[in-house]
TrEMBL record:
PANTHER family: PROPHAGE INTEGRASE, PROPHAGE INTEGRASE INTS-RELATED. Residues 172-384 form the Tyr recombinase domain. One of its GO terms (molecular function) is DNA binding. Coiled coil: none annotated. Belongs to the 'phage' integrase family. One of its GO terms (biological process) is DNA integration. This is Site-specific integrase. InterPro entries: AP2-like_int_N (IPR028259), DNA_brk_join_enz (IPR011010), Integrase-like_cat_sf (IPR013762), Integrase_catalytic (IPR002104), Integrase_recombinase_N (IPR010998), Integrase_SAM-like_N (IPR004107), Phage_Integrase (IPR050808). Keywords: DNA integration, DNA recombination, DNA-binding.
Amino acid sequence: MASFTQYKTKDGSKFWRCQYTIATDPLTGKRTKRQKRGFKTRKECEIYVAHQLADLDNHGFKEDTNATYKDVYDSFIESYRKTVKESTLNHVLGMFRIHILPAFGKYKIKKITVTTCQKIVNGWYDDFSDYKKIKNYANLVFKEARRLSIIYENPMDLVIMPKKKAKIQSDDDNKFWDKNELQAFINQTNKYYGGRNEKAVALFRLLAFTGARKAEILALQVADFDYKDKTLLINKTVTRDIDNHQTIGTPKTINGYRTLHLDQNTADILNHWISTMHKEMFMLGYNTGSRNQWIFPNTHNQLLSMMKPNKWMDAVIDSYNNDNKKRLKRITPHGLRHTWITLAIESNQLTIKQIQKQAGDSDVSVILSTYAHVTKQATEETIDKFTSYVGF
């Protein structure tokens, strides 16, 4: 829709002006009108409008919108939050709040250039190991602006991604224990917590002898444990909601749903702890007769804090290092998962497929590329085995 009118200037000259509707602003939903004056003839005015509307048909919304990156982000996140789990959304919101919006948020998105994007990405490369992930999330907003035809080209698509140089791995980079270190930790746990914190004893035993994730163990309920068959059902995990509160969610992938088989000693330790847990919680005034009872509750019979096992583990390591000349290197509860998978591979008793199923990873390549560390002892044995084989 367009209108053409003739007007006079103060000196009596006659010119033509046009007014036309270009589109609906994708951010505000309002119809946007444009006008231009100064044409000598109506024909010139009509040709100009025809060009503008043709360009609109080819490229979409052409208003010089004042929308900032933050404006488009607000529009994008409303749709994005309906496509992911709360835990993922919580992580993404944090990444935008901490890294991305401070860098891009105030800029008008149509004015952001490739040079600006390159400079920001280079800064992320210098400061953060997960700079690629930050860049990919930042790019989602540019893609949204392109989808809405607020911009014609995505400047982030032309960024040259920096590459981290591969570094030689040192022993300190291996956040897992060998067999002797694991045995020392389990023995020290029994010594340090035995009789006064059986919850920690059972928890670390499960982490060390199943390869399960900490969040999976903390989500266990009494119904998930079958002492007779010595099995443990993994079908949920502790995660965080949009308000950063702990809650129960589903495993990351379909492979996360699995049944773990326990050795007799581990099954006995867990069964003993469950009996102790019922008594302790009864003393605190809680009825734990339900099959939905948490196996590792806090003192309020709610989910145990995700950071509590880390504090318990640090205390055991500190205790060991104070009692012994030889120090036990510091790893996290997740390092016990690395330890289990590493020792399982080193033992040559399980196939990679069996290890993958027990660990709940979605791809065999994840096991091989991420967890297939080799301990010092195994490295030395490899050389001896090769020399023995070739015979000279």
